Inverse folding.
């Protein structure tokens, strides 16, 4: 069977889609920033899909509903989905073999399960193939102005981003190799994909973010823009002297950490700051408050 | 039995909660109590590495000099590729078998990316350290898995890649002709699809991989079972690290239940980075502004202790101002944990 037809441009119907890749260490606020972006686009009347990958769905917890492969609308123009690579691969294969029964046969075959589990890069290619299909104009009609990928931790992001080129290098020509090459090209198109790296105003996350940023610049020519989350407004540090001594030293330590982080980030620049705001109540409302509270913060 | 009488302490938790640092602090604490302790970690930050004096990239434990301690601290960095190679070297009968695997192109690329392989090699390494009885206590800082229970299932999952029917299917083919062997029509069709997808050559490489690795498949199964047994043993305790964050606490509860279902003992629950000021009335107005941001923790803290109280010990670990970048800072952190 020849799969190459899948990779051919089938018309420029949906070329406007922009991808936003959000990465960062665990617990820094990737999901928060992903949702915030979607909400901002939604307010401009643009349709966004926020995609989670990986085993667990944070939004299923935060929004109290189950998110799966099929996207769900959560507010006007904001949609959420949770993708597993197997489902992405199934969709890819279905597009190619046309017959659901044949595609299911492929997936229910135990030997096939093992081969796909062993074949390196299959998971990455499956997810990235679906993610970039709108830009590559392949596959089913794409209906989004923005796809926001709430990506893995930095280490995982790296292996995902490098996978297509590695796969292309190791299997070269052939349908999957070509497919991988097409995906790799899209990943490097910075007019079609924006890369964000969420970090915190503390030494350690900052240093690690800078390392990752420079790594990805060297390896792929990709520029991750820094999003500084949980930023303390200066008002937090006013009148420190009047505080109880041990609390004052706690606040001062916070302040020092933040200032150190700002110095460390001075060269590379901060694209955006998000204010420190304890999490409370309805998620969507909380994101709106966070945007409000961050509105006077410049990058 | 206290935590110091255990042979293996497994630390779990999602990313960003300070799991690795806490594991190291517990190791310091155990050494202070006179134990010879080994802490094994996969991906520590640069700072922690230098705090522990871990410079080598490979997995052999290094001793960390600590004057105050009666016991000894050892630390090792689990490098999945190194551990997997070591496993192959130990479990192949001869040079030819060994080289056939180590030189396999697919093996070189996927020994660290195979489903479950990182976890398998991490566990294999831990299990053999515990079995060696070289240490009184081994502390394993689990890899930053998104779902910690997957970590425990990983060896089985990894082994299932090499189950008999799959291996025998691959075992007797030869080069490019194996696809054309008599197969069920379902498998034939599936293979056709896959061939269309990845091309003949790549499929051939996958075959070569299975062909090479089959000699160690039985050993992989054996060790996967040994790992499962050790992790369910009563001399093994699990500890969970979390922070006061709704989503992370919800994950922690799920993990607690899942561990229980699987027959593992979750014994210690550390809530890390706790805001160190509880009492709003002791703080001036600005303090309250800070406290409001943390008010969540006092509300859920009590509930949480109730939820876990029956068989899990809950410890709050206060947030510290200083960076943990020296052994001394680890020592202070360790001393602050009242376990």
């Amino acid at each position: 069977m020849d799969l190459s037809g899948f990779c051919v441009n089938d018309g420029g119907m949906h070329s406007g889609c922009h991808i936003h890749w959000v990465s960062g260490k665990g617990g820094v606020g990737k999901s928060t920033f992903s949702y915030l972006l979607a909400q901002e686009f939604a307010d401009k009347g643009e349709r966004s899909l926020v995609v989670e990958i990986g085993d667990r769905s944070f939004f299923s917890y935060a929004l109290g509903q189950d998110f799966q492969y099929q996207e769900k609308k959560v507010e006007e123009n904001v949609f959420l989905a949770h993708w597993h690579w197997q489902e992405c691969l199934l969709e890819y294969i279905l597009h190619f073999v046309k017959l659901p029964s044949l595609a299911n046969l492929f997936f229910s075959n135990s030997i096939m399960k093992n081969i796909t589990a062993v074949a390196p890069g299959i998971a990455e290619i499956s997810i990235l193939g679906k993610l970039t299909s709108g830009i590559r104009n392949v596959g089913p009609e794409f209906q989004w102005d923005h796809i926001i990928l709430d990506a893995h931790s930095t280490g995982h992001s790296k292996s995902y981003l490098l996978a297509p080129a590695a796969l292309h290098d190791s299997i070269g020509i052939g349908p999957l190799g070509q497919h991988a090459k097409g995906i790799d090209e899209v990943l490097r198109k910075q007019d079609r994909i924006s890369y964000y790296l969420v970090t915190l105003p503390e030494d350690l996350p900052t240093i690690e973010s800078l390392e990752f940023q420079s790594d990805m610049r060297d390896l792929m020519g990709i520029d991750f823009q820094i999003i500084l989350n949980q930023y303390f407004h200066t008002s937090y540090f006013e009148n420190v002297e009047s505080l109880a001594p041990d609390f004052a030293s706690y606040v001062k330590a916070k302040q020092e950490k933040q200032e150190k982080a700002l110095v460390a980030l001075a060269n590379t620049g901060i694209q955006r700051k998000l204010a420190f705001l304890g999490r409370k109540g309805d998620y969507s409302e909380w994101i709106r408050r966070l945007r409000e509270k961050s509105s006077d913060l410049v990058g | 039995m206290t935590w110091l009488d255990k042979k293996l302490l497994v630390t779990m938790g999602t990313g960003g909660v300070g799991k690795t640092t806490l594991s190291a602090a517990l190791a310091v604490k155990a050494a202070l109590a006179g134990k010879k302790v080994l802490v094994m970690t996969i991906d520590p930050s640069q700072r922690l590495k230098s705090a522990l004096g871990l410079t080598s990239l490979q997995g052999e434990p290094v001793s960390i000099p600590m004057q105050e301690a009666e016991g000894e601290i050892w630390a090792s960095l689990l490098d999945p590729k190194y551990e997997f190679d070591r496993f192959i070297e130990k479990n192949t009968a001869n040079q030819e078998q060994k080289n056939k695997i180590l030189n396999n192109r697919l093996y070189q690329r996927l020994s660290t990316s195979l489903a479950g392989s990182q976890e398998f090699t991490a566990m294999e390494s831990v299990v053999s350290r515990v079995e060696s009885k070289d240490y009184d206590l081994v502390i394993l800082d689990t890899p930053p898995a998104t779902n910690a229970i997957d970590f425990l299932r990983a060896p089985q999952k990894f082994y299932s890649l090499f189950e008999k029917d799959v291996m025998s299917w691959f075992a007797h083919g030869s080069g490019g002709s194996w696809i054309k062997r008599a197969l069920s029509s379902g498998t034939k069709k599936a293979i056709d699809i896959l061939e269309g997808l990845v091309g003949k050559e790549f499929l051939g490489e996958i075959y070569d991989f299975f062909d090479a690795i089959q000699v160690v498949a039985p050993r992989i199964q054996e060790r996967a079972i040994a790992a499962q047994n050790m992790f369910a043993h009563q001399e093994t305790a699990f500890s969970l690290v979390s922070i006061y964050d709704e989503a992370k606490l919800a994950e922690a509860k799920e993990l607690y239940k899942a561990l229980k279902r699987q027959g593992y003992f979750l014994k210690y629950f550390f809530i890390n980075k706790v805001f160190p000021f509880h009492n709003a009335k002791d703080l001036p107005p600005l303090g309250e502004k800070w406290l409001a941001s943390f008010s969540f923790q006092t509300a859920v803290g009590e509930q949480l202790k109730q939820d876990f109280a029956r068989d899990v010990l809950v410890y709050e670990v206060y947030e510290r101002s200083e960076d943990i970048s020296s052994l001394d800072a680890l020592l202070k952190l360790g001393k602050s944990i009242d376990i």
